[in-house]
Specification:
about 280 residues; alpha+beta; about 45% helix; elongated
């Protein structure tokens, strides 16, 4: 499929997601490629070439969702040690796995740090040459993964859409660190969508808002998820924002101090209406 056709397809997907979920920022497409980006003819901003600095994955994702810009980074462009290891651009040194990175910050003991750090997903070493981030309405290469930032309510809508087509639950795994990059790596490894709590890097340098969560999905099933969102909208029940239930009787007597007066007044009104109806019936 030509890039123009791919771009048009994902632009439709982006428009659908923005409309159905009322997203505040653009969905982000992620691609990892096994060749040099220049060799592939990828036309995108490069951190060092165009901004004269290295950038983190969190920053590149923020550029995509806030500004709609596509970026591509090779190892020389990457600022974050975590993403370099997680995406398989370099072998982790021993102190990345022995607990030193978490001890005293994320964990009380070095042993707990070792358990945490060794559990983080990592892509195979050397498989990829470059990392691409892009807004879904302006893709520069076909994405493998799509990230959608939003409120917990918007996440519930996405989860129910996936459950609708698969019957499977969506996993949320969180440690407070390495939120978005580990989520992307895990989705690539498992082929399943997942929820993530963006970590401190996401929030400090990626400008993730305090109320935002993250839904990460293989791009290959995005069309099915969007179809499910549309079908569930037809129920007028699984919608976003949720429709409040308003057809219940309000208990005005529960209002402090004056509630008994409201209740007495409404009782008088009911009695008046009952008598008026009774008088009408007698007259007829």
């Amino acid at each position: 499929m030509e890039l123009r056709e791919i771009s048009e397809k994902y632009k439709r997907y982006s428009n659908d997601l923005m409309e159905i979920l009322r997203l505040r920022t653009k969905p982000v497409g992620i691609a990892l490629v096994d060749k040099d980006p220049d060799e592939l003819g990828i036309n995108a901003f490069r951190p060092i070439k165009h901004f004269r600095r290295k950038l983190t994955f969190c920053q590149m994702s923020a550029v995509a969702r806030y500004y709609g810009m596509g970026m591509v980074a090779t190892l020389e462009d990457m600022a974050c040690p975590g993403e370099i290891i997680i995406f398989g651009f370099a072998e982790p040194p021993s102190y990345f796995l022995d607990g030193s990175l978490s001890y005293g910050l994320y964990t009380r003991t070095k042993e707990a740090g070792r358990t945490l750090d060794s559990s983080l997903p990592r892509l195979p070493m050397g498989r990829y040459k470059a990392l691409l981030t892009m807004s879904l309405d302006n893709v520069i290469y076909e994405p493998q993964v799509v990230m959608i930032y939003g409120t917990p309510g918007q996440m519930v809508k996405l989860v129910t859409a996936y459950v609708y087509i698969s019957g499977e639950k969506v996993t949320l795994s969180a440690s407070g660190k390495a939120g978005s990059d580990t989520a992307v790596a895990d989705v690539l490894l498992t082929g399943k969508p997942r929820l993530a709590l963006p970590g401190y890097g996401d929030r400090i340098v990626g400008h993730v808002e305090d109320y935002e969560m993250l839904f990460v999905t293989p791009a290959s099933i995005l069309s099915d998820i969007i179809d499910a969102l549309k079908e569930q909208n037809k129920t007028n029940f699984i919608v976003y924002p949720p429709m409040p239930s308003v057809f219940y009787r309000v208990d005005f007597s529960s209002i402090p101090v004056i509630g008994h007066l409201y209740a007495e007044f409404l009782k008088e009104i009911e009695e008046r209406v009952r008598k008026e109806k009774g008088g009408t019936n007698e007259g007829s």
